[in-house]
Amino acid sequence: MKFSRLILANLFRKKVRLILTIGSFAIALVLFTFLAVVKSAFSRGAEIAGADRLVVVSRIGLMQVMPISHGDKIATIPGVKAVTHNHWFGGVYQDERNFFPQFVIDPENHRKVMTELVVPDDQWNNFLKDRMGAIAGARTAARFHWKVGDRIPIKTTLYGGAAAEFNLDGIYHSERPGGDESQFWLQWKYFDETVPPVLKSTAGWYVVKLNSPDDAVRVAKAIDEKFANSSFETKTETESAFAAGFAKQFGNIELLILSIGGVVFFTLLLVTGNTMAISVRERTSELAVLKAIGFSGRAVLFFVLAESIIIALVGGFIGLALAYLTIPVIGIALTGLLPPLLLSKSLLTLGLGFALLVGAASGLLPGLGAMRMRVVSALRRV
Amino acid sequence: MVRVDGTGKSNSLIQVRGLDKAYRRGGEEIQVLQRLNLDVDKGDFVAFMGPSGSGKTTLLNLLGGLDVPTHGSITVAGDEITHMSGNKLTQWRARHVGFIFQMYNLIPVLTAFQNVELPLLLTKLSKSDRRKHVETALGVVGLTERMNHFPRQLSGGQEQRVAIARAIVADPTFLLCDEPTGDLDRKSADEIMELLEALVGKYSKTILMVTHDPVVAARAHTTLHLEKGVLVEGKTSRESVMAGGAV
Fold this sequence. Notes:
A: eleven-stranded mixed beta sheet, 13 strands, B: alpha/beta, Rossmann fold, four-stranded antiparallel beta sheet
């Protein structure tokens, strides 16, 4: 492009200012990307939830248990393909900071319902035969360098504080991108034998697999109606709604992140807008000369916008590259405190779009001013 | 032949009729130019003189299509420019006018070559054709050797010569010079005036120049005085200087 030399020459006019502006873009992009990744981590459960699954919990609350017999009754409702039950197992591995979710699962039906969580058959068969067996998600196994055959000591915080050693019979992977690979599964039989009598033959929640996602509303209503006015009323919702509600227990993460993101956006807009305004003001006479010799107002606007967008894109690329390198490191450091931090292509594209938007917005006002500038007045100011 | 009585030939290169320009400042209307007529033929070299605020630069801006008159018409090479839209006027300037300013107004981050090339970026010329044109223009002003120098690496006189090369590179219909020697020492000023004379003499360029300096004005074919917004035809510039200096 024949104007590129003019644009680049103007861009490098004040090198220190250019570096600082690009730097502020890069830092803002790292922050923006990190916030977006955290937001995505919290909402990922809802995004990747199975459309053909329902979650049934006690109407009183998630921590209230339900009779194990609910499962058979749910299975009789038309449209239900399979039902499995789970229990929360609040255990500690070595240190409380080593948090990972531990679920007591129903081995008979778990695979029929959670089809995307895959365990090799030989490992699964060993797990079925092993009362003290356990299966860990690939992420958790990698985090603690576990391998199949290891014995994993877990001290429970909920059911009398007993400590037990479990045999790691298998490692599961999620077939869905971004799926949760941090869980640790235990045998329901072992759990049922060791818990206090009040918890025997109970389930924390049920997960229901449907024949068709179209049945979701009808089946959810039928389940809740079946247990209405009983001692153990239920609340049934889609897995997606359940995951979204679960994430909300941490507070309004989305609002918090959007607020911080908004502040980052406007601060960056003010910084770069001010820089561009100063840059344009400094060369009022040069822009006036360009217009005098035949460059149109639109061409002048184009030059200013091109500069601000180039700064934004270069800063954006650097920021995204830094985010790409640092977020996995931060993710490892925050394991247990936050869900897995995944920097997806869509987030990188969003970041670049954010940079482009800020770049264009920051150059627009000074550019419009230059476009509308009267040559005679501008030359008189020289 | 330059005339200011409105009786010039209909085929004059520049024809100004009944030109008025008034500004409004603080609610008061200031009449800068009043019913001004002017005819300039191709190859004329005209100097405008007059006290500060007499409207010299305003007239130059109007002739260059940088400003619009309150009344009257300006016709250049058959184009009536006073009623052109902003965009048309911009295109017209690119094709017909070469500007030379007192402060040179080069782009400091571009080399002499790149500064001279600027008006050609608006044309459809290829890169190699642009290079030929720029080298020719820089050759005319005697700065071929300095084409890769930045303005800060040039003297004032050299900067103005680059500005002249920029003004002539697209072969405009006429040149407008606003105090082209105002920021130069006498020697450099003489060199610039020799160059302008050569452009008129050798290349038949038409030049309209504003100056305060009677010695500089004396190099033009004709000197016109602006007094209270009205153009007054004087002696030829050379005659004025011979007769005693100040015009």
